[in-house]
Design a protein that fits this description.
The chain has six helices and seven strands, in the order E-H-H-E-E-H-E-H-E-E-H-E-H. It is α/β, with parallel strands linked by helices. Helix 1 crosses helix 2.
């Protein structure tokens, strides 16, 4: 059974993506950042033939033009934990990783590291510098309730989720910075371009409608 990586993303639409970032750089610049980062991530993931790539989109009916070899599923309704549980439950028997799309440094090398980490653990997490996490990878042995009452979008999100796995083995990949605010975005501008980043090269592979 092939491994799967699910990318959680909001469809690229003006005024609906990266709203906190848009407060500082404007809706159009925020949309360009979101589109370029998502496009670069999907391109990098599909260049690795070791796993299938799935884009989990919200809103469900939004139009998104996908690169080759990317499947699409809908996130559905509910809070973040409900939607992630729904997506992960589609792949109950194999190894599956789920990641966000707003961390330009993340890529296929991290996914391979997470899948390797499942060799000695039931779950692997990619911590975010703000106390959340940008990746969760699971094998077939999973808690009945994955996320419990995790406090999403807070510094407690990772700790709350780890509490659900307290009787299971967990591993971690590297801690990365997500880009939610202008301060995050400026920090990114000062950092070296990670492989595959399209920050300075607008790309039309994924188009808003």
């Amino acid at each position: 059974m092939r491994d799967t990586v699910i990318v959680f993303a909001r469809a690229p639409r003006l005024g609906t993506v990266k709203r906190r970032l848009a407060l500082g750089i404007g809706d159009r610049a925020a949309l360009r950042f979101h589109t370029a980062t998502l496009t670069a991530l999907l391109r990098d993931l599909t260049s690795c033939r070791r796993f299938d790539v799935v884009l989990a989109v919200t809103p469900d009916r939004a139009f998104v033009r996908l690169p080759p070899r990317v499947q699409r599923i809908e996130q559905g309704h509910g809070d973040l934990g409900t939607r992630m549980t729904r997506a992960l439950s589609r792949y109950p028997r194999g190894r599956v990783a789920l990641m966000g799309c707003d961390i330009p440094q993340a890529g296929s090398d991290d996914i391979r590291a997470a899948l390797r980490g499942l060799g000695t653990a039931d779950a692997v997490f990619g911590p975010a510098a703000d106390g959340g996490y940008w990746l969760i990878a699971l094998g077939p042995r999973r808690p009945a309730e994955l996320f419990g009452s995790a406090r999403w979008s807070t510094e407690h999100a990772l700790a709350d989720t780890l509490n659900q796995f307290r009787h299971r083995r967990t591993n971690f990949v590297r801690t990365l910075h997500d880009v939610d605010t202008v301060a995050d975005w400026r920090h990114l501008q000062l950092a070296p371009d990670p492989p595959g980043t399209l920050r300075n090269r607008p790309d039309q592979t994924i188009l808003p409608r």
